[in-house]
Amino acid sequence: MSTTVLPTYDDAVARYEPVIGLETHVELGTNTKMFCGCPTEFGAEPNTQVCPVCLGLPGALPVANRAGIEATIRIGLALNCDIASWCRMARKNYFYPDMPKNFQTSQYDEPLCVDGYVDVEIEGETFRIEIERVHLEEDTGKSLHVGGATGRIHGATESLVDYNRAGIPLVEIVTKPVTGLGSRAPEIARAYVTELRDIIRSLGVSDVRMEQGSLRCDVNTSLNKPGDEWGTRTEAKNVNSLRSVERAVRSEIIRQAGVLDGGGRIHQETRHFQEDTGNTRPGRSKETATDYRYFPEPDLVPIAPDTAWVAELKAALPERPSSKRARLRVDWGISESDMQSVANAGAVELIEETILAGATAAGARKWWMGELARRANETGVELSLVGATPAQVAQLQTLVDEGKINDKLARQVLEGVVAGEGDPAVVMKTRGLEVVSDTGALQTAVDEAIAANPDVAAKIRDGKLAAAGALVGAVMKTTRGQADAKTVRELILARLS
């Protein structure tokens, strides 16, 4: 039995050219499902948001959700797509337990939006990702496999199905094959999904929360020798974080290079990305369009958006995230590389909202890109889910500006906020972290520091005022960082003058 020897990433991209493609699914934030009146609230009790239509019961007829169509058109316009003047839904036939009708109402050869693009910028260089299509469909239900160690069907003792999600409007955004990226393919894939998420969030049509499945990405990757035809692609399914999009591309480049180096052949298949290892494992062989037996949906009328309506929607589009970042960069007084770091961290809106809540640009950026970003990286969560809100960060900075806490104490307060102990002012009071500036309370600590450091005190008496820093440090240690450093210095100099 032979074992595939994996090359390093640098070695793989030195000898092979990667081609990537991304299929991104966005759950729309409509109040009701795409073809019925069932609610779409996340987290409801299993199978409580269903009806004969979304369960596919005999005789039930669908009616298209206008809000879902409008949201899809707005997404297409924001992605620079052409909007079809006439299109229709189709039936995509396949059987999975979480597909109650045994077919998915989707679009095949007549999508609602086509031929768009998204520009992403990395380190001052712009990459254009071309969009092949943006089409509208319905989501499936959700299977839960229990009794096993992995949460997957293999090894499980039973499987449960929740149909609440079945029928929720879903938009699929499909790129054209992206070539010529070389070693930067993984980071550009991540940058594209990041930009896509920001664009959709700015439209207000979805919360695009990857951890809840409202934004999911299928990552296609293939390799070929320079000058050869494109290789066979694999598809990593339902990758659910920005970091994992990058890791999935990198992992597949290394794996496929190892297979090709060993004389093996890449099989067209879906693969499952493993968060713990950063690798992919085989899923199933990949179907083709003919396997799905597409045909026009006979129970829905064609969609023919009025050109005047489309023009109104286009005129009402919000500011593009890229334009907004350029404007905010000037307002905040930061460099292009700093703004790129903010964007990569997913912190643009968080910092903006913190400023609107009363913080300075420098203060808001300090906390989100410093302490909070560190915590997000350590716990492996998106920055917006780290446990603090923009309003709380603004309140924290206000406490610092007012002198009620210093930066050291503020980090302890923030720790309490993230732990769910309340707003910063509450945590400060509960934990007893407020700065002590009362001269009477501090004088004893100052006298003790002077008595314990006679050599330092002598230097200060001789006019070497810089030596006061050592005594300030001693008092801060005694008071566990709660003393007001400015007041302490003044007391020291007054005592030794």
From TrEMBL:
Q: What class of enzyme is it?
A: ligase
InterPro entries per record: Asn/Gln-tRNA_amidoTrfase_suB/E, Asn/Gln-tRNA_Trfase_suB/E_cat, Asn/Gln_amidotransferase, Asn/Gln_tRNA_amidoTrase-B-like, GatB, GatB_Yqey_C_2, Gln-tRNA_amidoTrfase_suB_CS, Gln_synth/guanido_kin_cat_dom
In what residue span(s) does the Asn/Gln amidotransferase domain sit?
Answer: 349-496
Q: Which UniProt keywords apply?
A: ATP-binding, Ligase, Nucleotide-binding, Protein biosynthesis
Its Enzyme Commission number?
6.3.5.-
One Pfam family name is GatB_Yqey
Give me the reactions it catalyses: L-aspartyl-tRNA(Asn) + L-glutamine + ATP + H2O = L-asparaginyl-tRNA(Asn) + L-glutamate + ADP + phosphate + 2 H(+); L-glutamyl-tRNA(Gln) + L-glutamine + ATP + H2O = L-glutaminyl-tRNA(Gln) + L-glutamate + ADP + phosphate + H(+)
User: What's the superkingdom here?
Assistant: Bacteria
Q: Fetch the SUPFAM superfamilies from UniProt.
A: GatB/YqeY motif, Glutamine synthetase/guanido kinase
What does it do?
A: Allows the formation of correctly charged Asn-tRNA(Asn) or Gln-tRNA(Gln) through the transamidation of misacylated Asp-tRNA(Asn) or Glu-tRNA(Gln) in organisms which lack either or both of asparaginyl-tRNA or glutaminyl-tRNA synthetases. The reaction takes place in the presence of glutamine and ATP through an activated phospho-Asp-tRNA(Asn) or phospho-Glu-tRNA(Gln).
Q: How does it assemble?
A: Heterotrimer of A, B and C subunits.
User: What protein family does this chain belong to?
Assistant: Belongs to the GatB/GatE family. GatB subfamily.
For this protein, the record's NCBIfam families field holds:
gatB, PRK05477.1-2, PRK05477.1-3, PRK05477.1-4
Q: Could you identify this protein by its name?
A: Aspartyl/glutamyl-tRNA(Asn/Gln) amidotransferase subunit B
Q: Which organism is it from?
A: Winogradskya humida
State the organism's lineage. Bacteria, Bacillati, Actinomycetota, Actinomycetes, Micromonosporales
The gene it comes from is gatB
